[in-house]
Amino acid sequence: MTAKKPSIPDTWTDPDDASALTEAFFQTADRYEGATLKPRGRPRAATTKEAVKLRLDADVLAALRASGDGWQTRINDALRASLTLAGKLA
User: Fold this and answer.
1) How far is it, in rounded angstroms, from Cα 18 to Cα 54?
2) pLDDT attached to residue 65
3) Virtual torsion, Cα 51, 52, 53, 55, nearest 10 deg
4) Distance between CA atoms of 30 and 36, rounded to whole angstroms?
5) DSSP labels for the chain?
């Protein structure tokens, strides 16, 4: 004979029973360099880039994407080289 299984497992624990946050936790929560809070994440670049919307022919875009990761950086490098040769950039 098959018995009916309980609807909730016996090993359930109350999520409100989390351990108390100690002073040690709060000391390590933020990173400081001396008295200055160290910012998190990637450091800011010396020169930032600007997002633009650009319409390209489908075959050109497919070829660029097929060249692998970093295709947007390669477009930027190609445009920079072209503008440098034309004397538009130093």
Assistant:
1) 51
2) 94
3) -120
4) 10
5) -PPPPPSS-TT---GGGPPPPPHHHHHHHS-EETTEEPPPSSPPPSS----------HHHHHHHHHT-TTHHHHHHHHHHHHHHHTTS--
Q: Which residues contact 83 (CB under 8 A, 6 or more apart)?
A: 89
pLDDT confidence of residue 28: 72
pLDDT in tens, 10-65: 676 777 777 788 888 877 778 888 888 888 788 888 888 899 999 999 999 999 99
Residue pair 89/79 in contact by the 8 Å Cβ criterion: no
* 50, 59, 71, 83 alpha-carbon torsion, rounded to 10°: -60
Distance CA 11, CA 7 (A): 12
